[in-house]
Amino acid sequence: MKTTRRDFVKTAGAGVIGATLAPALARAEAPALWAGRAYDVAVVGAGVFGAWIAYQLRQAGRRVALLDAYGPGNARSSSGGQSRVIRMGYGDQEIYTRWSRRSLELWKALFRKVGRPSLFQPVGVLWMARGQDPLTTKTLATLPRFGIRHERLERAELDRRWPQIDFGANTWAIHEPDSGFLMAFHAVQAVAQLAMTEGGEYLQAGVVPPVGKGRLDSVATAAGETVKAGAFVFACGPWLPKLFPDLLGERIFPTRQEVFYFGPAPGDTRFRTPEMPVWVDFAEEIYGVPDFRGRGFKVAPDRHGPAFDPDSGERVITPETLTGVRGFVSRRFPGLKDAPLVASEVCQYENTSNGDFLIDRHPERENVWLVGGGSGHGYKHGPALGEYVAARIVEGGAVEPRFSLATKEKVQKRSVY
Fold first, then answer.
1. Which pLDDT score is estimated for 375?
2. Residue 108: left if φ>0, alpha if ψ -120 to 50, beta else—which one?
3. Of 256, 283, 304, nearest to 411 (Cα)?
4. Bridge partners of residue 128, in order along the sequence
5. Are 238 and 129 within one domain?
6. What CATH number does residue 363 fall under?
């Protein structure tokens, strides 16, 4: 079935934002309008990074076009799915703690603005630890420096507060009571909608890989349309290697990730909000989100899967992974031992070699920005990243060295969790 630009309006839902957005998208229906209009910035990719960049650029008064092949929060994107965790703990990597704190402020402000505060659920985040785990102990030292409310809980207290969890070999945990989870694809759509409501324009179209070198004046779409702009931001996640194969084909790693949702028994509220927090079992490389409004108890391995194509990859879970996840759930959450699988997702991570973001100018095109490498931990940072990229475009300034293209290697060695 062919997707039109009006489909985004239809999926946006009723209410002020959806109704206000319709005229903005309707203006994009005629390709002739796009062909004759020049924008200050065209943002390619309407995931969480691209949507927030477009929104922040509109806040700075720039004329913005936002493009996406499948639509904001679509099922193929790394920003799709039901939920994403937002936490402050990052060991001693303080830039991500700062960005998480700032992002939570901006997320909540935007949700208030669009009248949907429930898109953030402050159920708390529980990070389980064993012994002197370096990442967790460094997190414990970092959080007080930023005034982030938290508590260290020993095993006896964990067992008392959450008797539905068998903590196994975990001996203590960090609890962030003000953190929680975001309703993922709904939140992305809310940001994109607001950016358009406040004057941006949206075009649902795939972009053809740019050719040549030097300043980029326009991008072509697969439908033959042309979008002109003074600057371009490519924030298209796992599609970055496809658009820039020579530059990023070996530096951005899209991997297949499986997500599972188990159904608690009727009347059993122990695994639902607010009785259950978001949890991370770092030693087991697995995390989860409590059942919210009957959508199921989310469990997702955090280990990187095999290489994956976001366009053509089949999104069906594997029996082997399901068996492993069921075994973990039976051990860690005995009350869900026989819980049915009520839903599942296959998405993808899209990472750099070590997990740091990529935010840098194209080395051969001074008006082109490359933004990505965020999957697995990047969703939460969308607002702060959007601010940062918009400021670099509007005000200039040097790029944070750890985000530079020069630091991105061709062999994966994860150091950001």
1. 87
2. alpha
3. 304
4. 173, 281
5. no
6. 3.50.50.60
User: Tokens 């068998």 correspond to what residue?
Assistant: 166
pLDDT at site 34: 54
Enclosing H/E stretch for 41: strand 38-44
What's the chain's average pLDDT?
A: 92
Gap between the Cα atoms of 343 and 297, Å rounded: 9
**Separation between Cα atoms, residue 125 and residue 110, nearest integer Å:** 22
User: Distance between CA atoms of 302 and 285, rounded to whole angstroms?
Assistant: 5
Q: Is 50:71 a contact under the CB 8 Å cutoff?
A: no
d(CA 287, CA 223) in angstroms, rounded, equals 41
Residue 302 and residue 287 in contact, taking contact as beta carbons nearer than 8 Å: yes
Is the backbone peptide bond immediately before 274 cis, with ω within 30 degrees of 0?
Answer: yes
Q: Is the pLDDT of residue 5 over 50?
A: no
Q: SS3 of 261, please? A: strand
In this structure, are 373 and 245 located in the same domain? yes
- For residues 82 and 363, the answer to whether their CB atoms sit within 8 Å is no
Does 228 fall in a domain? Answer: yes
At 277, list the tokens. 């927090």
Which residues, 6 or more positions from 159, have their beta carbon under 8 angstroms from its beta carbon? 167
Residues 260 and 304 in one domain: yes
Q: What whole-number distance in Å separates Cα of residue 409 and Cα of residue 292?
A: 39
Domain contains 417: no
Task: Kindly report the CATH number assigned to the domain that includes residue 130.
Answer: 3.30.9.10
Helix (H, G, I), strand (E, B) or coil at 146: helix
CA 159 and chain centroid, separation: 32
Q: Is residue 89 part of a domain?
A: no
Q: Which amino acid would we find at residue 52? A: W
C-alpha–C-alpha distance, residues 50 and 70, integer Å: 13
Q: Give the range among 3-12, 122-131, 228-237, 337-346 with minimum mean pLDDT.
A: 3-12
Question: Across-strand partners of 382?
Answer: none
Q: In what order do the strands lie in the sheet with 286-289?
A: 151-154, 172-176, 125-129, 278-281, 286-289, 297-301, 253-262, 341-351
Instruction: Give a yes or no: residue 86 inside a domain.
Output: no
Structural domain including 53 reads 7-78+185-252+355-407
Beta bridge partners of 202: 66
pLDDT tens digits for range 199-243: 999 999 999 999 989 999 999 999 999 999 999 999 999 999 999
User: CA-to-CA distance for 339 and 326, rounded, in angstroms?
Assistant: 9
345 has pLDDT over 50: yes
The pLDDT of residue 261 is above 60: yes
